[in-house]
Amino acid sequence: MDINHEFWARLARVHVVSHVPNADACLRLPATQQAALRAVLATTGAQALVYKRPPGTALGPEWQALDFGDYASRLSGGSVEG
After folding, report:
1. Within 10 A of 62 (CB to CB), how many other CB atoms are there?
2. Domain that holds residue 55
3. DSSP for 5-74, written as a single string
4. What confidence tier does 79 reach under pLDDT thresholds 50, 70, 90?
5. Highest-confidence range of 19-23, 34-38, 52-56, 75-79, by mean pLDDT?
6. How far, in Å, CA of 6 to CA of 16, rounded?
């Protein structure tokens, strides 16, 4: 995983509250385990996940494209911008 969160977090004026060491493995988890992980991350104060999608990797409809190949998914549902 490309660790560039300092760059985009500063530009977006957001705080990184948690880091998932192996995002690719997390996205391969069964849906129930992904939901449990998202619930745990939400308890840290995180409001969204940000992921740099490797080429050829499919993401679900809950992921919204950002700049530079990053994608975001709000933990509580809804739009990332909202």
Report:
1. 15
2. 5-74
3. HHHHHHHHT-------TTHHHHHTS-HHHHHHHHHHHHTTT--EEEEEPPTT----TT-EE-GGGEEEEE
4. very low
5. 34-38
6. 8
For the record, the structure tokens of 32 come out as 């129930």
Number of folded domains in the chain? 1
- Residues 57, 55: Cα–Cα separation, whole Å: 6
Terminal CA-to-CA distance of the chain, rounded, Å? 26
pLDDT band for 24, please (50, 70, 90 cuts): confident
- State if pTM tops 0.70: yes
